[in-house]
């Protein structure tokens, strides 16, 4: 950084190119694997290893720069804008899958079932098909065979409570951080991580239940497709969120944050709340109504 | 600011290739983007020339129909994602920090990654040309079920799109963070140059729609490999749903490709008219309205898929409305020229040509928006004519105008004016020769995406093909001019153009490594 | 200069001769042979002319300014840069013009969506790369595909006038009767398009789209698949033979016999 300016501009970095190589290797490996060739697997793993190495390395660099006090409040605010817009992009990503769910429920299935302009479709192509959500939502071809749908009350409802509580514990931790109560901060974060993990375990149990007892999987027509894509991507985000929380927990234990300067904590908190809200949407539109 | 320890050895410039790979400097990255776009332009243009060669005459001469479809598909993907978007991001990198009076982009390391994704993503995409089953051939719109018939190329295609999307999103986040956070004191939002404004809105569009595309292609991927039924009627899905998703992305995407051009033109016209831009604030509002409307018009690409009447009407009206804010822009540009004292250097020539031909493209767009008439136009060369008019003499001309306008600033050297003018006239002549006849063959009934056609279309296709080769050769001149200017030439002053206004012109030509270390004072 | 003259003469000759060769009508949208297609043509021309007029005004103003307000003429630039009145005018005027376009367009569109009282129902199925036509309630069903020989496509023989626009079995329909088409597909998306009828609709696997028409004039009308459907998308033409009602009845009986004959052999 030149001395006169105050905004920190890192000098050259190797991480981006490593990231590109890592992600590209992963994708190429994945593609080869999907095309049915087993060596893809090894390429995929090499790629993933590079990606993980990169993430750890890149974030360590940032954390250490932050700890050395290089970032001023303007840098901090750049990070904030970055995180806000990143989360907005995630919102849009989930919006597609919600959109797909709404679309099939309100347009495609009724059409196949012969409502309105769909009369000819139903008569000539899919006679006898009646569109009832979710019972016949694996389509007129009964793709994937008979299945039972998920019910909302039971583990999903419990999971809702768990995730909402985790939002509370995280907020508690945040307040503690602002008031310099380290004990509460660590306890709050620890609880959040724990709740997140329990959520994931329950979700795994649910999936097992779906696969074995309900005959419900990705291949169960549009119901299975939307169900698993939405909950799957959500679960993936919870996993990422939990890992990030662990990192924050670790950093809190090392005493990294102070009441004024804790962007990383806030970023993770925003992210966690976002994942929380998505779950609420899921619970209402996927499980409940 | 406090006296915290800063890294001291920043101004070391590593040399050789590593300088470019490791760089976090907005100018270096801007240069990388621009060169990347230039290379891709020649690759994508080469594909267009293959298309035009095959269409030179009726009958199959050079390529297999499947390969022809691959060329159409890859040409579009390369041109949109590999040329226009990176070129605009390159311009944003070079110019936005200078225009708002900041030292660099807000998130420099991420900035580097946004760029360095692109060569990898495009290597993945272009490598599909040599794969079993050929490169993707389902059109750039990737409609299922056809796109699901792609061979080994399929996952590469999907992942490369994810990868490009990641790059665009990060690039856009950086632009927004820079604009919101790096402005010099006094640089209020309503004082920003229009290029900055249009990019701010473009970045918002990018962040809003690239994830939508990513989600859509992810569904394609799972439909092909994991047994989902998103686009399969038997499973309760719907192929049309993909089209909704795609165009929810796709329509804002076309404004992503044009809004920064508006910004460029709004910078150039006042300079050479020596008169302030007419209606600055209405330009800003118009841009915002276009962006807003772009979210509610997507189904005008799908008038023939069998949307209920009410839907068709809604999308028709909404689409027609876009003519109003766009008209405001055009009228404001013309009024800016009115009573000015104009000179016609190359950037101005390109900017004027932009206004004329973009408007022609806009008019044909408006015709397409009329649903009953679109039943006749849809999927014909009339559509091809429309979008090439807004894209080639639209976006591409604006990018070229920008290059001529700011090259002296970037390199410190003036470009050779006569050669620039020759390049302009050749381009303008040939671009019309290529794309104007396409209106006629389209109206006469020639469908797009076909490698062979019936005899009544022969004359005009021949003309179009000749035009395409002419236009291509003219672009070699452009490459030559750019390289020559970088190598040397008449030294440029700081101001460069006597009518130029804006912070970038207060810096030396070429500007220092960090644009504004001490924030400039903005009155 | 000499070359420029020669070039201009060349251009002039071509401008005057080319359209004559191709026939001027080939340069524009066909008027077609149904009431609707005539309306569509009217709409097309209306909007085209509106655009041309706006274009002439806008570009006219611009080129006037380019000619008159140039620095070499020694003008001093004005400094004004705002006028709410002007900007209001050019927001509101285009808006009114747009309404003027939207009204007739809406009327035509509503007519196009009216499929009631159809007398003949034909189900059309797209395949990679041919069409199947089923006359509902008659048992008639047959395939229709490109009949242009490969030798012409691969330039071994000279191309006939209907190159790429000919099929083995045409779709035969009567004039003056409302015909309803039910469109679907067996594999990927196709689109069934006949310009002279101003009909274009996508054929989608698993769904049926509808459209209807009344043809006014007997004749042979040619169209093509208008949605990319793979390798032979360009080789998937449509030919309709519109005949008088009598002829249609005759054709129908003849076809029925043929079809039932096939059925018996089976
Ligand atoms: C830069 C890219 C760009 C831009 C700016 C536009 C601008 C517009 N486009 Fe275009 N479009 C594309 C790129 C673009 N388009 C592409 C790539 C496709 C094809 C995709 C594919 O299928 O592969 C397409 C296809 C496309 C279709 C679908 C056609 C079909 O497939 O059947 C339609 C239909 O409505 C349409 C409409 C419009 C309209 C109304 C505008 C408007 O924004 C234009 C507004 C401008 C003006 C109208 C001119 C200036 C205004 C005045 C001077 C004011 C006064 C004027 C009047 C009142 C008339 N476009
Ligand atoms: C920004 C976007 C952009 C740009 C710049 C262009 C530029 C050009 N396009 Fe493109 N085009 C699209 C976007 C774009 N196009 C899209 C979105 C489609 C739709 C695809 C689809 O249907 O899915 C399309 C489709 C499309 C078609 C229709 C194909 C079909 O339907 O089958 C055609 C046909 O003529 C065409 C032609 C051209 C030509 C001649 C140029 C020229 O302007 C190109 C000029 C540039 C050059 C020619 C480069 C110069 C290079 C050289 C001179 C190198 C020569 C080297 C050697 C000989 C070794 N394009
Ligand atoms: Cu069938 Cu194109
Ligand atoms: Cu559009």
Mind explaining what this structure looks like?
The complex is a heterotrimer of chains A (289), B (523) and C (266). By secondary structure, chain A is an all-alpha fold. Chain A has helices at 15-34, 39-67, 73-112, 119-125, 155-178, 182-214, 221-253, 263-288. Chain A has two domains: 9-70; 71-288, Up-down Bundle (Four Helix Bundle (Hemerythrin (Met), subunit A)), CATH 1.20.120.80. Helices cover 73% and strands 0% of the residues of chain A. The longest helix of chain A has 40 residues, at 73-112. Chain A is globular and about 70 Å long. The termini of chain A are far apart. Chain B is an all-alpha fold and 523 residues long. In chain B, 66% of the residues lie in helices and 0% in strands. Chain B has helices at residues 17-22, 26-54, 65-100, 108-127, 153-181, 194-225, 239-256, 259-273, 280-294, 309-321, 323-337, 346-369, 371-377, 381-411, 417-443, 458-487. The longest helix of chain B has 36 residues, at 65-100. The model of chain B is unreliable at 1-10 (pLDDT under 50). Chain C folds into two domains: 28-67 and 85-114; 120-265, Cupredoxins -  blue copper proteins (Immunoglobulin-like, Sandwich), CATH 2.60.40.420. In chain C, a hairpin with a 4-residue loop joins strand 6 and strand 7. The longest helix of chain C has 34 residues, at 35-68. Chain C starts with a helix and ends with a helix. At the B-C interface, helix 3, helix 10, helix 11, helix 12 and helix 13 of B face helix 1, helix 2, helix 3, strand 7 and strand 9 of C. The site of one heme-A has 33 residues of chain B, from helix 2, helix 3, helix 14 and helix 16. One heme-A (HEA) sits between chains B (141, 254, 257-258, 300-301, 319, 322-323, 326-327, 330, 359, 362-363, 365-366, 368-369, 374, 377-378, 383, 386-387, 390-391, 394-395) and C (51, 54, 58, 94, 97-98).
Poorly predicted residue ranges of chain A: none
Could you give a short account of the major beta sheet of chain A? Answer: none
Supply the CATH architecture of the largest domain in chain A.
Up-down Bundle
Query: Which kinds of small molecule does this entry bind, naming each only once?
Result: heme-A, dinuclear copper ion, copper (II) ion
Class by SSE composition of chain B: mainly alpha
Sheet-strand content of chain B, in percent, reads: under 5%
Number of distinct beta strands of chain A: 0
For this structure, the quaternary state is: heterotrimer
The mean pLDDT of chain B is: 92
Q: Give the terminus-to-terminus CA distance of chain B.
A: 22 Å
Portion of residues in helices of chain A?
over 70%
Q: Helices and strands of chain A: which structural class?
A: mainly alpha
Stretches of chain B where pLDDT is under 50 for at least 5 consecutive residues are: 1-10
The overall pLDDT of chain A, averaged over residues, is 91
| C-alpha Rg of chain B (nearest Å) | 23 Å
Supply the CATH superfamily name of the largest domain in chain A: Cytochrome c oxidase, subunit III, four-helix bundle
**Treating each run of at least 4 consecutive H or I residues as one helix, how many helices of chain A?**
8
């Amino acid at each position: 950084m030149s001395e006169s300016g105050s905004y920190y501009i890192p000098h050259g970095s190797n991480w981006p190119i490593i990231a590109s190589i890592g992600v590209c290797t992963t994708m190429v490996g994945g593609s080869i694997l999907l095309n049915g060739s087993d060596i893809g697997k090894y390429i995929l793993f090499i790629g993933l290893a590079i990606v993980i190495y990169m993430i750890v390395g890149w974030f360590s660099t940032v954390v250490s720069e932050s700890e050395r006090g290089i970032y001023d409040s303007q840098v901090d605010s750049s990070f904030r804008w970055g995180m806000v817009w990143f989360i907005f992009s995630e919102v849009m990503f989930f919006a597609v899958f919600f959109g797909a769910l709404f679309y099939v429920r309100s347009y495609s299935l009724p059409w196949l079932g012969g409502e309105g302009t769909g009369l000819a479709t139903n008569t000539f192509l899919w006679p006898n098909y009646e569109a009832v959500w979710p019972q016949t939502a694996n389509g007129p071809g009964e793709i994937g065979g008979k299945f039972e749908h998920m019910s909302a009350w039971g583990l999903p409802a419990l999971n809702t409570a768990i995730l909402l509580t985790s939002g509370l514990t995280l907020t508690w931790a945040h307040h503690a951080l602002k008031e310099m109560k380290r004990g509460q901060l660590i306890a709050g974060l620890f609880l959040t991580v724990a709740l997140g993990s329990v959520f994931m375990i329950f979700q795994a149990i649910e999936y097992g239940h779906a696969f074995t007892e309900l005959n419900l999987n990705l291949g169960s027509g549009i119901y299975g497709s939307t169900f698993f894509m939405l909950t799957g991507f959500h679960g993936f985000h919870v996993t990422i969120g939990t890992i990030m929380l662990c990192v924050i927990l670790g950093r809190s234990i090392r005493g990294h944050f102070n009441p004024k300067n804790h962007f990383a904590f806030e970023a993770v908190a925003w992210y966690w709340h976002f994942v929380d809200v998505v779950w609420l949407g899921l619970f209402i539109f996927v499980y409940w109504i | 600011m406090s006296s915290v320890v800063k890294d001291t050895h920043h101004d070391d410039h590593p040399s050789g290739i590593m300088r470019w790979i490791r760089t976090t400097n907005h100018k270096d990255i801007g240069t990388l983007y621009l060169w990347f776009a230039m290379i891709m332009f020649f690759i994508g243009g080469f594909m267009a020339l293959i298309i035009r060669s095959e269409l030179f005459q009726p009958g199959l001469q050079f390529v297999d129909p499947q390969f022809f479809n691959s060329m159409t598909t890859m040409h579009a993907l390369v041109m949109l994602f590999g040329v226009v978007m990176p070129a605009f991001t390159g311009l944003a990198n070079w110019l936005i920090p200078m225009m708002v009076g900041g030292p660099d982009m807000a998130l420099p390391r991420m900035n580097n990654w946004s760029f360095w994704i692109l060569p990898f993503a495009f290597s993945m995409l272009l490598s599909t040309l040599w794969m079993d089953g050929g490169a993707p051939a389902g059109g750039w719109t990737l409609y299922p079920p056809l796109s699901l018939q792609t061979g080994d190329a399929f996952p590469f295609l999907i992942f490369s799109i994810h990868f490009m999307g990641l790059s665009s999103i990060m690039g856009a986040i950086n632009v927004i963070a820079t604009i919101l956070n790096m402005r010099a004191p006094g640089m209020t939002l309503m004082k920003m140059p229009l290029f900055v404004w249009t990019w701010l809105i473009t970045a918002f569009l990018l962040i809003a729609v690239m994830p939508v595309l990513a989600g859509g292609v992810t569904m394609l991927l799972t439909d092909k490999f994991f047994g989902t039924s998103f686009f399969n009627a038997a499973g309760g899905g719907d192929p049309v749903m993909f089209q909704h998703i795609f165009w929810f992305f796709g329509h804002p995407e076309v404004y992503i490709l044009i809004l920064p051009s508006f910004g460029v033109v709004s910078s150039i016209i006042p300079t050479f008219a020596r008169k302030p831009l007419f209606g600055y604030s209405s330009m800003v509002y118009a841009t915002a309205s276009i962006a807003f409307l772009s979210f509610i018009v997507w189904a005008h690409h799908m008038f023939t898929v069998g949307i209920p009447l009410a839907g068709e009407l809604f999308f028709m009206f909404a689409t027609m409305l876009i003519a109003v804010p766009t008209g405001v822009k055009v009228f404001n540009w013309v009024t800016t020229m009115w009573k000015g004292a104009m000179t016609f250097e190359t950037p101005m020539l390109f900017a004027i040509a932009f206004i004329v031909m973009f408007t022609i493209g806009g008019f044909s767009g408006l015709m397409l928006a009329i649903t009953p008439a679109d039943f006749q136009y849809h999927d014909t060369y009339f559509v091809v004519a429309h979008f090439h008019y807004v894209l080639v003499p639209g976006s591409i001309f604006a990018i070229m105008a920008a290059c001529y306008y700011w090259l002296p600033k970037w390199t410190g050297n003036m470009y050779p004016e006569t050669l620039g003018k020759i390049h302009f006239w050749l381009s303008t002549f040939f671009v019309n020769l290529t794309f104007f006849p396409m209106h006629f063959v389209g109206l006469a009934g020639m469908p797009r995406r076909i490698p062979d056609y019936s005899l009544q279309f022969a004359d005009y296709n021949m003309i179009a093909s000749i035009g395409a080769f002419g236009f291509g050769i003219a672009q070699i001149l452009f490459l030559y001019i750019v390289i020559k200017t970088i190598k040397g030439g008449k030294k440029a002053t700081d101001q460069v153009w006597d009518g130029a206004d804006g912070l970038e012109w207060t810096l030396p030509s070429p500007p220092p490594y960090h644009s504004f270390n001490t924030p400039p004072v903005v009155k | 200069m000499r070359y420029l003259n020669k070039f201009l003469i060349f251009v002039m000759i071509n401008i005057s001769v080319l359209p004559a060769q191709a026939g001027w009508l080939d340069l524009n949208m066909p008027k077609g042979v149904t009431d609707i297609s005539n309306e569509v043509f009217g709409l097309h021309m209306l909007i085209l002319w509106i655009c041309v007029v706006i274009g002439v005004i806008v570009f006219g103003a611009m080129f006037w300014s380019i000619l008159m307000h140039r620095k070499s003429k020694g003008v001093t630039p004005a400094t004004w840069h705002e006028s709410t009145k002007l900007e209001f005018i050019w927001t509101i005027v285009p808006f009114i013009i747009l309404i003027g376009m939207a009204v007739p367009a809406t009327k035509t569109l509503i007519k196009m969506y009216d499929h009631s009282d159809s007398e003949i129902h034909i189900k059309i199925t797209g395949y990679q790369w041919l069409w199947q036509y089923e006359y509902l309630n008659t048992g008639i069903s047959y395939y229709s595909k490109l009949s242009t020989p490969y030798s012409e496509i691969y330039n071994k023989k000279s191309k006939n006038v209907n190159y790429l626009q000919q099929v083995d079995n045409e779709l035969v329909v009567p004039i003056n009767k409302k015909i309803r088409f039910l469109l679907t597909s067996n594999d990927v998306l196709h689109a069934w398009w006949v310009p002279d009828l101003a009909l274009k609709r996508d054929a989608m696997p698993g769904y049926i789209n509808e459209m209807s028409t009344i043809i006014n004039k007997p004749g042979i009308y040619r169209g093509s698949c208008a949605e990319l459907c793979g390798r032979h998308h360009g080789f998937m033409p449509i030919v309709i033979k519109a005949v008088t009602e009598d002829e249609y009845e005759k054709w129908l009986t003849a076809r029925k016999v043929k079809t039932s004959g096939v059925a018996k052999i089976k």
